[in-house]
Each structure stands twice: as structure tokens, then as C-alpha cells.
Amino acid sequence: MPKQRPEPLDIDEQEERPSKSQLKREMHALQALGETLIAMKPAERAKFPLSDDMLRAIEETSRIRSHEGRRRHMQYVGKLIRKEDLTAIQGVFDAIEQEKEQRDHAFHRLEKWRDRLVEEGDSAVDLFMAEYPNADRQAIRQLVRNARKEREQSKPPTSSRKLFKHLRDTLAL
After folding, report:
1. What does each C-alpha distance from 22 to 17, 118, 137 come to in angstroms?
2. Torsion sign across C-alpha atoms 76, 82, 86, 88
3. Are 157 and 149 in contact (CB under 8 A)?
4. N or C: which end of the chain has fewer CB within 10 A?
5. CA-to-CA distance for 97 and 88, rounded, in angstroms?
6. Cα–Cα–Cα angle for 133, 168, 114, nearest 5°?
7. Mean of the per-residue pLDDT values of the chain
8. Using CA atoms, how far apart are residues 40 and 88, in angstroms rounded to an integer?
9. Cβ distance 157 to 151 under 8 Å?
10. What single string gives the DSSP state of each residue in 59-106?
């Protein structure tokens, strides 16, 4: 009996089906996502909507010591993560990233205020107090004077750092 050749697939079916390389790239991406989740602190990980199986697999990772065993376990985590709600997980990652960007923006604003306070002195302190009336004017002026003196004497910017910390605490960042 002669071998029967499989019927060739329609061109439309071939285009719809992803290539083997594409499937491997997707699996590696999911495995990398699993590694990211494993590297997180438990408090951060609690924000994510993960199944009980996935959480157990993540916890089990810390007990695996051998390299090969960890590699196989990461493949297992990648397999489990395929069953998770990836859009919800991505939404949490996006929210964390947005929160980080806002925090970075606030810190840049504080750095600009600190630099402006040290450069301009009392006039900048008055502007800062107008914008943030709950700030401690006396402490800010003292830290600004000390920072200016350190800068003039080419000393390390200890007071400048203290000023930044004071501003951060004042604005509750």
C-alpha cells in the first residue's frame, strides 16, 4: 500500500496559523513574565490576579536549588501562565509603571525646587512658601543657607541632600 501524502493546506490556513518560531517566542515571553513575577516581593505580587496553582509554583521556585531543576520549573511556570488572565496582569504592570513615572516626575520637580532654592535663595523660598504654605520656612531657609555655604566652599552637598529630604517629607512623597 503506497504512503498517502497529507493533503496540502489551503494558503489561508497557513497564514492564520503562527509559525513554530513565533510560538517559541511567545512561550519565552511568557516564561520571562513568570520570572518577573517570581523576582517580585510578595507584597508587589499580591496586586496581580494570579491563580492558586500559579502562586504555589512561584513559592516553590525558592526551594529549587539545581540549575536544571530551576530551568524545568521555569518552563512549568511559563505553561501555567498561559492559563492566566494576561490582560489583567498587563493592566497591573501598566498601573505600576504609571505610578513609577508619576513618582519619578514628582522627584524631578523636587530636585528642581531644591536647585532653585539653593541658587536663588530667599526669593525662591518665598515662592515655595506661596505654593506650599504648610512648609517650615525657618528649616528650609537654614538648609538653603548651609547648602549655599557648602557649594561655595566646595564641600560635599550634605545640606543639599537634607534639603531634598525635608522637601520630600513636607510634600509627603
Report:
1. 10, 55, 61
2. negative
3. no
4. N
5. 14
6. 80
7. 86
8. 17
9. yes
10. HHHTT--SHHHHHHHHHHHHHHHTTS-HHHHHHHHHHHHHHHHHHHHH
Q: 136 with 103: CB under 8 angstroms?
A: no
Is residue 88 pLDDT above 60, yes or no? yes
**CA–CA gap between residue 157 and residue 143 (Å, rounded):** 11
- Terminal-residue alpha carbon distance, the chain: 79
Spatial separation of the C-alpha atoms in residues 139 and 84, rounded to whole Å: 52
Q: Angle at CA 89, nearest 5°, toward 104 and 32?
A: 85
Q: CB under 8 Å to 81, separation ≥6 — which residues?
A: 30, 31, 33, 34, 37, 54
DSSP 47: T
Nearest by Cα to 37 from 56, 23, 24, 22: 56
Local confidence band at 133 (pLDDT 50, 70, 90 cut-offs): confident
